[in-house]
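# step 3/5: fold
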Amino acid sequence: MVSFDASKRNGLKIMNNTCKGCGHPLQNDHPHLEGYSPKVGADYCQSCFRYKHYKDTSSIQRAVPKHTNQSYEGMVLWCVDAMYVEESLQRINHHWLQEDFIMILTKMDVYPTDLWHTRIEQIQSLCRRHRIHPLYIIPFSKHLSWTLEHIHAAMKASNQQLFSIIGLVNVGKSSCVNALLGESSLLTSPFAHTTQAPIRRTLGEWTLIDYPGFDVSEHPYDTLSKDLVEKIQINGLIKPITYALKRSCVIVVEDAFWVECQITQPSSCTLYMSDTLTSSKRNLQVLQSNPFSQSETYTGSVDVQITHVGWLHLVGEGATFTVHTLDSLQQKQTKDALCW
């Protein structure tokens, strides 16, 4: 039998345990409020249970968590999305990195393993540029046990017992904790803000605290449909798709983005994105039904990042490429994302 705390929080009767999915204190009084479970002694609130077992997103909590952490306990394990490192470097509060910390590069599975060394060298250069100096930089893959062994070794070498797992939303913090624990109890999803409150777990002599993403701004996925989010989420090795361009055309990538290619000589467009997104080459007449209101134009050969979707490698002397996207998807010219 689970006991109840006699105190009330926001008028709710709070059970002594918290949801393993979102971290909210569990309660069974108000079905429409956070942390509700009809079952006393449950491990998950109702919305997390529905998503975990049935992938039902109708009641999943996607609001920005109401937390204002100014510091974290113990040593920081900083999870950084290996695809979008610059974003994490720009948005981290350097105060959180004053002591020794470990950087864990999540989502390294998108790169072939023979390119990992090159990508890590790029990231080391970016860290130096931002004056950020991790004690260790460790690539992570839940499919490669040696990456977990390296994380364990770094934690042991630190002589710490308490570790705070932090990072931006959707970088794979909870997936990393699940892998370290050797289970799948923490809820993971392609949506932002799945973890709503700190979740404390024990791993042998260590205590791990999985924190919500420290960014409080709206995530691009918050404004997209469930179907599109699930399509653009990259979950494994990227297999680039290259289009040889002999005449002007439009590369149509479903409902995510279009690339308008105005060329005068043979050029090419290589897409690095989820293999669940389909693409095709169309003639310029398709622009008459262009559904996108945001456009950026690039001249000549250039690499373009569409944050949280993928990258484009555009090659063409004298060519003009216009990338049309949804308003919520940011794009920019980049030199540090690709290592193929």
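# step 4/5: annotate
The chain has three domains: 4-54, 75-216, 241-333.
# step 5/5: archive (pending)
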